[in-house]
Amino acid sequence: MLSVFDIFKIGIGPSSSHTVGPMRIAIRFLEEAASAGVLPNAVRVKVDLHGSLALTGIGHGTDKAAMLGLMGFEPDKTDPDAAQEAVALVRAEGKLRLHGGGEIVFNPATDIDLRGDILPVIHPNEMRLRLYSAAGVEIFERTYYSVGGGFIASEKQLKTKSEDDRIALPQRGPHAFSSAADLLAICAEKNFYIHELILENEDGFRPRAETEHRLDQIWLAMQSCIDRGLNTEGLLPGGLNVSRRAPQLWAKLHEAPLANEREQIFDWLNVYAMAVNEENASGGRVVTAPTNGAAGIIPSVLKYYCAEDGANIAHIRIFLLTAAGIGMLYKQRASISGAEMGCQGEVGVACSMAAGGLAAVWGADPGQVERAAEIGMEHNLGLTCDPVGGLVQIPCIERNAIGAVKAVNAARLAIRAGAASKVTLDQVIETMRQTGLDMSRKYKETSEGGLAVNVVEC
Ligand code: SF4
């Protein structure tokens, strides 16, 4: 049952699949152990990270995320500074207080095992947790998967997933749709714009006023992230010595905000996207859109086109609702996990969502929105995930800037297009899925290929 707020979630960086997901997994594990009545007997916990979670786990902060989750830090409520302090304390004292349980001895070096040599069968982001009694006996064990965008699933949930789940109805509400074709058909029948349809579906989750309030909170969180990124200088963590670039570019733009340079629009889009992704890379608070690695594209396009001259809240809601509707299609019919689809499933999806959202704000009809979203993905097909040093910095930060510019062009092409498109959004989503399945695992968030092996770390 997907909601707009499954697609847009507040969390902490640098990765929704490798940070937000593992935090949620650790909390869920302990809550299941508590329900089973075994948590009071636990004196030791062991975390095994397999596949991509291990291969890029250190760069993506998965070890820290596991500790935070074990202590009960929830991604949407976690203050990044408090999180860093808590992790530092665990490392210094060698113990932690389990969420819902007591204090236990904990040594991250031995109690978190990163096994990149284990290639999970069900999904590349596998996390196994075990609890032990004072006698050293294993008393509880579970395996979970972080399936992209902060979504998590148990082994049982993924194993019982049938082929048809890929196209199952993802929404609660009166206008359930399972494809872009369905979405357009319902819009035509009801004389709806896409954002109107999504909003009515959200009514199935909560009162309308609450949905609108939460949309505004999402936008506020995006803006705060942009502001922090524009005003924070220095090196990003992780050892690559990558400097934050957004503050300098921001200062230059402010020296001549109305310079009559034709390409200045690129600078504005670039600076907002990079501000968000530099915050993300430093473990700051971001909104998954639809993932952390691709979190800069939608805020950048929103900020430039809907808020430069004062926020137009109606436009911002239209943008977010439309983009979320498009994101739901990718989540349901393919995947938004870089470990499954490569970067086409993260930056490509964000570009597609932003293109559709912007087209909607420009007054596009549902068919034009669908076309914008299709173009936004068509030219990201095959995009690999090869982060240098396993960090969400190179190519991720610039890639969001490029993605924001591409999204605007996709919306523009869709609005200006004359003849009907030869490619549908459903076709391009299926093409992304098949391309992701065919892509070598070297290019799917393992840092074993591409830039990750050709750029020397220093
Ligand atoms: S390359 Fe793309 S998918 Fe991979 S970590 Fe960076 S933003 Fe995410």
Describe this structure in words.
The structure is a single chain. This protein has 458 residues and is α+β, with helices and mostly antiparallel strands. The chain contains 20 helices and 9 strands. The chain has 2 domains: 144 residues, 2-Layer Sandwich (60s Ribosomal Protein L30, Chain: A); 291 residues, no CATH class. The protein has a 5-stranded mixed beta sheet. The protein has a two-stranded antiparallel ribbon with strand order 1-9. The protein is globular and about 70 Å long. The structure holds iron/sulfur cluster (SF4). The site of iron/sulfur cluster (SF4) has 13 residues, from helix 18.
Topology diagram in text:
Blueprint: H1 4-7, E1 9-12, H2 16-35, E2 44-51, H3 52-55, H4 62-70, H5 80-93, E3 95-97, E4 103-105, H6 108-111, E5 112-115, E6 125-132, E7 138-148, E8 151-154, H7 155-159, H8 180-190, H9 194-202, H10 208-230, H11 246-255, H12 264-281, E9 285-288, H13 297-306, H14 313-333, H15 338-341, H16 347-361, H17 366-378, H18 396-416, H19 425-438, H20 451-454
Parallel strand pairs: 2-5
Antiparallel strand pairs: 1-9, 2-6, 3-4, 6-7, 7-8
Helix pairs in contact: 2-4, 9-14, 10-12, 10-14, 11-12, 12-13, 12-18, 13-16, 13-18, 14-16, 16-17, 16-18, 17-18, 17-19
Iron/sulfur cluster binds at residues 293-294, 338, 343, 346-347, 385, 387, 392, 395-396, 399, 445.
